[in-house]
Design goal:
Layout (H helix, E strand, L loop, with lengths): L1 H12 L2 E2 L5 E7 L3 E2 L12 E2 L2 E8 L4 E5 L3 E9 L2 E6 L5 E6 L10 E4 L4 E6 L4 E9 L8 E2 L2 H7 L4 H6 L3
Antiparallel strand pairs: 1-2, 2-5, 3-4, 5-12, 6-11, 6-13, 7-10, 7-12, 8-9, 8-11
Length: 167
């Protein structure tokens, strides 16, 4: 039943496969942009003020570890809870739970800070429809997929998690 709901969201929202895993569709890109001269040095060209996407994961998928140059705000919409797995620059790990059960530690929103490595997963048999908002706006040139060997070298204490959430 849950897989059927996930499939229905993919069809009804017109989602497409995402390079990190799961499904997505850009739903907003601001018409105005920030000139590169007004952005931090890590950006090489102008960026939209803000962008947002729908993102869906089901139980047989995961979002592989990656990082971007901006903060990313995650919003929960439907389905089961989703875990956002974050390893910060100092190697600290935190699991941010998105969902509708605050009594179980879930929240409707979480932020992943610019430059932190992160991936996501859902419980077996489940799915989650979420949104991600990025400012300044996302560009695929800001996206870095983790290489398993390099991440393991940096953070060997998280071997099991890195192995599970990299390709």
């Amino acid at each position: 039943m849950m897989e059927a709901m996930a499939d229905e969201w993919v069809r009804s929202l017109g989602l497409q496969k995402h390079p990190e895993g799961g499904w997505y569709k850009e739903i907003y890109r601001s018409a105005e942009s920030i000139p590169v001269s007004a952005l931090p040095e890590r950006f090489t060209s102008a960026r939209s003020f803000c962008t947002s996407i729908y993102f869906l994961l089901s139980d047989n998928e995961f979002s592989a570890f990656h990082r971007i140059k901006q903060d990313e705000l995650w919003h929960f919409y439907d389905g089961d809870g989703l875990s956002v797995h974050v390893i910060d620059r100092d190697g600290n790990y935190v699991e941010k739970l998105l969902g509708r059960k605050p009594q179980e530690g879930e929240s409707f929103q979480h932020v992943v800070r610019a430059g932190d490595w992160f991936g996501a997963s859902v419980a077996p048999g489940g799915y989650a429809l979420v949104g991600c908002t990025v400012a300044p706006g996302f560009d695929f040139s800001d996206f870095e997929m983790a290489a398993r060997d390099e991440l393991l070298e940096l953070f060997p204490q998280h071997r099991d998690l890195i192995t599970r959430l990299t390709r």
